[in-house]
UniProtKB/TrEMBL annotation:
Keyword Membrane among record annotations: yes
Protein's name according to its UniProt entry: Inner membrane protein
InterPro entries xrefs: Uncharacterised_IM_CreD
A Pfam family this chain is assigned to: CreD
Keyword Membrane part of the UniProt annotation: yes
TM stretches of this protein: 21-42, 315-333, 345-363, 369-388, 400-416, 422-440
Highest taxon, organism lineage: Bacteria
Alphabetically ordered keywords of this record: Membrane, Transmembrane, Transmembrane helix
A GO CC term attached to the entry: plasma membrane
């Protein structure tokens, strides 16, 4: 005997039907939040791989030479002064005065070398540096130093080289008509300075007037090469066959030329642009320490043009957006077409969306970020399209969701490329997306 539905049964079915939609929407929301857990694990994996890349660079640099900052020559004059000790007794103390050149010109040619440690690329270089200039006059009275207090047989010249392992030849400096031979710093002087020193066999300040100097350095390093503009007037000229320079330091160059065949850059630095004087004594900077002239260094970093890890890390920040938009689109397709999809199947689709980032990370280490993004996106879209076609039994609805996914991934890729305009482009895209969702959800019976 056929059961005739009563009014009460019909109302109950309607309530359940509407409640079912709301319950499923709530479950989908919870699923989105749960999928943030594996997403965070993938983000940690990206950071781990980036750290491994830095370790590989450090390992190669340790066997070659690290970042280089070349400073000098700095004329260093020791003198004896008196100071009170803890008991108030006056004692003789040796201190140092530093004199910088009036003119300094640096001409450097940087020859890049690309090395690999496993799958990681490391940019090394060998630079030929011509350094010349002059000291016009050393004025001890400018610093209130009595020439009689100077220890003349301990006067020396300092050349600062951050990593002396990178020096491929013995460092020599032509000093007027004599040649100075530098050795690792064992004399003392400026606080914490790395580099080499050479004694000056002089007996008076007059021997330090009108000094011309010149040196040619053959130096190796990795990633970065900087020069400190210590001259009252400093001119620094760099050129290289490397096409991807990143100019760095205290100031940017006055002129640059960057082409596929390489780059050239020129700096001109004057004394009034620096944060240290032309001559100074030990421990007389405003903070009670010796002036750190290397803070004013300028130069170039051999920039690796595409850092896949940074872009992958930026892309995973949009993971919740991709998952949410995909689930909303799938939910609308399911509801409008009166289909029924189990939350477990939503979860599988969500996991496929998370695995997109592991594919992106894996492929980007070999083929670059852009190609890896295309491979990972097409693979993920293909997998989800095949799965949805099976559960909805509709190639048309599967195609619709595939188009949505393609638009979502294209949208995120565009944001990643337009870094300077990502906020504007992202806001407009989200506004349009919200409008589309509002349009298709108008006739839903909640």
């Amino acid at each position: 005997m056929e059961t005739i539905p009563t009014a009460t049964t019909t109302i109950a079915n309607d309530i359940w039907s509407k409640s079912k939609v709301l319950i499923k929407a709530g479950i989908i929301g919870v699923l989105i939040l749960l999928l943030l857990i594996p997403t965070n694990y993938v983000e940690g994996l990206i950071q781990e791989r980036e750290a491994r890349q830095k370790e590989a660079i450090a390992e190669v640099s340790q066997k070659w030479a690290g970042k280089q900052t070349i400073t000098g020559p700095i004329l260093t004059i020791p003198y004896i002064t008196t100071a009170a000790d803890a008991n108030g007794k006056l004692t003789n103390v040796k201190k140092y005065a530093y004199f910088l050149p009036d003119q300094l010109q640096v001409d450097a040619t940087v020859n890049p070398q690309e090395k690999h440690r496993g799958i990681y690329k490391v940019m090394l270089y060998n630079a030929l540096v011509n350094l010349k200039g002059q000291f016009a006059k050393v004025n001890l009275s400018q610093l209130g130093i009595d020439p009689q207090s100077v220890v003349w047989n301990e006067v020396f010249v300092r050349m600062g080289v951050t990593d002396t392992r990178g020096l491929n030849e013995e460092l020599q400096l032509k000093w007027n008509n004599s040649t100075l031979l530098f050795a690792p710093n064992a004399i003392g002087g400026q606080d914490g300075a790395d580099g080499l020193t050479a004694r000056l066999p002089i007996q008076s300040a007059e021997e330090l007037n009108n000094i011309s100097f010149e040196s040619i350095l053959n130096v190796s390093g990795s990633e970065q090469l900087l020069f400190t503009p210590i001259g009252k007037t400093s001119k620094i000229n760099l050129q290289s066959a490397y096409p991807h320079p990143s100019f760095t330091g205290d100031v940017l160059p006055q002129s640059t030329l960057v082409k596929d065949s390489g780059f050239s850059a020129n700096w001109i630095s004057l004394a009034h642009k620096r944060n240290f004087p032309q001559e100074f004594r030990q421990y007389e900077s405003p903070n009670g320490k010796t002036y750190d002239v290397e803070n004013s260094a300028v130069g170039v970093s051999l920039f690796v043009p595409v850092n896949a890890y940074q872009k992958t890390l930026r892309s995973i920040k949009y993971a919740i957006l991709c998952i949410a938009l995909t689930f909303v689109a799938f939910f609308l397709i399911e509801t409008i077409n009166r289909k029924s999809v189990h939350p477990f199947q939503y979860g599988l689709i969500g996991l496929a969306l998370v695995l997109f980032y592991t594919l992106l990370l894996s492929f980007s280490e070999y083929v670059g970020f852009n190609a890896a993004y295309g491979i990972a996106a097409l693979s993920t879209i293909g997998l989800i399209a095949w799965f949805v076609k099976g559960i909805l039994a509709s190639g048309k609805l599967s195609t619709v969701l595939s188009v949505v996914l393609l638009l979502v991934y294209s949208y995120v890729f565009s944001i990643l490329q337009l870094q300077d305009y990502s906020l504007l482009f992202g806001s407009i895209g989200l506004f349009i997306t919200l409008g589309v969702i509002m349009y298709f959800s108008r006739k839903l019976q909640w």
